[in-house]
Design a protein that fits this description.
41% helix; alpha/beta; 5-stranded parallel sheet; 11 strands; Rossmann fold; single chain; binds calcium ion; Arc Repressor Mutant, subunit A; 2 domains
């Protein structure tokens, strides 16, 4: 899953980036509203963390522009303490959730998981596909109750596929959602990760749809 992190405070931004990366997210950053708007307009993200007080273009305007343009990406806004009117304005502008500074990383991660889940139409934090289960809270993957050991890239691919049960996911889509923009992307490596995943999962669970991509069944 790929996150756009918009925060102009360099210290907070690097703290959040480290926490998100450790939780397995691919992270792109922006430190001002103009860059944030451009990235959200041109790149694909699974969720956006958007500070409202930003240089060049404020967060509320960025959010309104995305929503006016029909962009549906889940957005979690970061608001200043004791500023209830900012929360109201943010939610009315199309934010899906908010956090008031200062907050705990754990709470940010929990809200993010919920946003991404809901955007996929999934209610439970434990994603299921037959005997395969992925607990989005702990990252634990089990097959018929037995733990499955995955590398971080295998985990990212499986996590994305399990958020889209039954859907055909192309290699390009997978590449866009598991790597940040500055990463040297190569969709051939996706094939390698899927190949390794297949060896750890029941035969036929990850189907190849010729010319289109992969489907979890
Ligand atoms: Ca700020």
């Amino acid at each position: 899953m790929r996150i756009l992190l918009v925060e102009d405070d360099p210290q907070l931004r690097s703290l959040l980036n480290a926490g998100l990366t450790a939780a397995g997210y691919a992270v792109d950053e922006a430190d001002n509203g103009r860059d944030a708007h451009f990235l959200g307009d041109t790149e694909t993200f699974d969720a956006v963390i958007l500070d409202l007080g930003l240089p060049m273009l404020d967060g509320l305007s960025v959010l309104k522009r995305w929503r006016d343009a029909g962009r549906k990406v889940p957005v979690l806004i970061l608001t200043a303490r004791d500023n209830w009117s900012e929360k109201v304005a943010g939610i009315d502008a199309g934010a899906d959730d908010y956090l008031t500074k200062p907050f705990h990383m754990e709470e940010l991660l929990a809200r993010l998981r919920a946003l991404i889940r809901r955007a996929s139409g999934l209610a439970s934090p434990v994603l299921q596909c037959g005997a395969l289960a992925l607990d989005t809270r702990s990252g634990r993957v089990t097959l018929a109750g037995q733990p499955v050991a995955l590398t971080s890239h295998e985990h990212k691919v499986l996590d994305y596929l399990m958020h889209r049960p039954g859907a055909v996911v192309s290699r390009t889509e997978l590449t866009e959602h598991i790597y940040a923009q500055d990463f040297d992307r190569d969709s051939n490596t996706i094939e390698v990760f899927v190949g390794r995943l297949r060896k750890k999962l029941p035969a036929g669970m990850i189907e190849t749809v010729r010319g289109m991509g992969y489907r979890l069944t």
